[in-house]
Amino acid sequence: MAKTWQTFVRKFEDMKEGEFKLFIKDLTPGPKKYDTKYVKASVKKSMKALPDSDPLLVRSESGDTALETWYIKILEELPPWVPGRPWEDLYKAIEKNQTAK
Fold first, then answer.
1. Which residues, given as ranges, of the chain have pLDDT below 70?
2. What residue ranges in the chain does DSSP mark as E strands?
3. Which residues does 9 contact at the CB level (< 8 Å), separation at least 6?
4. Dihedral sign (CA 40, 38, 45, 9)
5. How many distinct structural domains can be found in the chain?
6. Cα dihedral 8, 62, 11, 59 sign
7. What's the CA gap between 3 and 44, in Å, rounded?
8. What per-residue string of b and e applies to 56-69 under the rule 16 or more CB within 10 Å gives b?
9. Which of 26, 46, 40 is closest to 82 using CA atoms?
């Protein structure tokens, strides 16, 4: 059964196709609805470009939903934290983690 996921970006144009580490939230009805995971995933604008993928809703920081649905295929579940200082900007911490590997 396909799941539906959600992620947040600062600006919609920040969302790109490719392989990324990102936080996603499960929107599938059931006992695990709203669980959050930190994953390495492949993300595409088209389901045809990413077979066996799940829908991914992209939201801005203010909660607006992007007009188009993206698609995600989880490649690896990562530890549920990102290295950094408690007061550090989460998006910058993820970006540093992306470029460090």
1. 1, 84-85, 87-88, 90, 98-101
2. 5-9, 18-26, 36-44, 54-60, 70-78
3. 15, 58, 59, 60, 61
4. negative
5. 1
6. positive
7. 16
8. bbbeeeeeeeeeee
9. 40
Around Cβ 72, how many Cβ atoms within 10 Å?
25
Q: State both tokens at 53.
A: 């993928």
Domain hosting residue 38, numbered range? 5-99
Q: Which residue has the tokens 């290295």?
A: 83
CB 38 within 8 A of CB 32: no
Q: Which two tokens stand for residue 50?
A: 């990413």
The DSSP code for 66 is: P
pTM of the model: 0.79
The model's pLDDT over 69-98, given as tens digits with 9 standing for 90+, comes to 999 999 999 987 777 667 667 677 777 776
What are the tokens at 38?
Answer: 């930190």
